[in-house]
Amino acid sequence: MNSLQRMKLVLSGKKADRIPWVPAIYEHKAFLINKTPSEVACNAELLYQAVIEEFSVYQPDILTIGVDVYNIEAEAMGCKVKFYKTNDIPAISEHVFSQKANFRNLRTPNPLKDGRMPLIIEVGKRVLHKLGKAIMVRGAMCGPFSLASSLCGSEKLLILTLRDPNYVKHLMEFCTRVLIIFGQAYLNADLGIAVFDSMCSLVSPLIYKKLIMPYHNELMLSFCEKGLEHRALIIGGNTTALAECLTKVNANQVLCDYNADLEYYIKATENTEIAVKANIDPELIQRGPIEKIIETGSKILEVGSRMPRFILGSGVIPYNTPKVHVLALKKLIEDYK
Q1: Do the bridges between strand 21-24 and strand 310-316 make them parallel or antiparallel, or are there none, so unpaired?
Q2: How far is 79 from 77, CA to CA, in rounded Å?
Q3: How far are the Cα atoms of 63, 149, 247 from residue 282, in angstroms, in the given order?
Q4: Which of 16, 114, 187, 245 could form a disulfide with 76 if both were Cys (CB 3.0 to 4.6 A apart)?
């Protein structure tokens, strides 16, 4: 059974040969080919090589194209991104909005022309052509709240959720339109989509319901109507308080990060057709020892294996994590009965 077959069975609630293994490999891709994250993030050939090496070394059950996954859309819309000659991750250095934006003047990026959007799509198509019969290949996408944060700054956005929620709604509407267009470009290339929106873990359930949930629902419903079968909404951080909300936004895979309550997520999703990916602490994976990594992974598997739609993953693996630490988890899941 290959990874594509395994994921299709698990997402449909059927038993596969084993639990899927989906580590979060982004800047660590660059480490695998002895390049910096900035080099790989800006070069289609290097990114392609890094993704192929990720597949070769770790044999994950899903491949996601991207390195600095929260920068792509914002950069295409005019934000400045700082790239490094060191192993630091590229980061937003200048936001588009220093003041409140006039939404009539906002530019909607063209995924086929602007920023690094075309690079991600090009690499995704190449990987899909080489490996698509064996594994699910998806493009990384920033979620609307995290995109809004990149456009105006995280601190400013969080303050605006309290002081000017109507403005935030308009910003979220605009960001959602941008992402629907980007998503269509992925779909046109026959790629899957993973939506990353970890800024949401910083807000209360009340703010999530009022200012974010409607736009997650709109985005995921749009993808569902266009035939996207695997709709992953990835929100890192302790999202236990948001778990029930996340089951109602038309996503069919959500994330229980290493510091969230997996038991609670299992209960929240037990009468749904939603898969739960549970993460192992990436800092533990980086520092080890392997015995502790295996012990932690075994405990998560013991809990998660009670549900049919369960995926074992990791938080974002740090750049210079020893490969043997990640491979220990791969062996654990392969041997798990």
Answers
A1: parallel
A2: 6
A3: 18, 24, 25
A4: 114
CA distances from 220 to 149, 190, 212, 251, 313 (A): 20, 17, 12, 6, 22
The amino acid present at 212, given as its one-letter code, is I
In one-letter notation, the amino acid at residue 332 is: L
Residues of the chain with pLDDT under 50: none
Q: What is the dihedral of CA 283, 7, 213, 156, to 10 degrees?
A: 30
Q: Kindly give the interhelix angle for 165-188 and 154-163, rounded to the nearest 10 degrees.
A: 130
Using alpha carbons, select from 303, 251, 295 the residue that is nearest to residue 278: 303
| Closest residue by Cα to residue 136 from 232, 26, 62, 233 | 62
Tokens of 77: 């819309």
Q: What is the pLDDT of residue 109?
A: 96
Q: What's the pLDDT at 107?
A: 80
Question: Residue 118 is encoded by which pair of tokens?
Answer: 């075309």
- The three-point CA angle 206-207-212 to 5° equals 120
Cα 218 from Cα 196, distance rounded (Å): 15
298, two tokens: 């075994």
DSSP structure class, residue 208: I
Q: How far apart are alpha carbons 107 and 78 in whole angstroms?
A: 9
CA–CA distance, 230 with 276 (Å, rounded to integer): 12
Q: Which residue intervals of 12-153 are DSSP H helices?
A: 27-32, 37-41, 44-58, 72-76, 117-131, 144-152
Centre a 10 Å sphere on the Cβ of residue 299 and count the other Cβ atoms it contains: 12
Instruction: Tell me the CATH architecture of domain 3-335.
Output: Alpha-Beta Barrel (3.20)
User: What residue type is assigned to position 13 of the chain?
Assistant: G
* 215/277 Cα distance (integer angstroms): 22
Residue that has been written with the tokens 């000659």 in this structure: 85
Could you tell me the two tokens for 117? 């959007």
DSSP secondary structure letter of residue 34? T
CA 9, CA 28: separation in Å to the nearest integer?
28
CA distance 115 to 170: 24
> In the numeric block, which tokens belong to residue 119?
């690079």
Structure tokens, 182: 């980007």
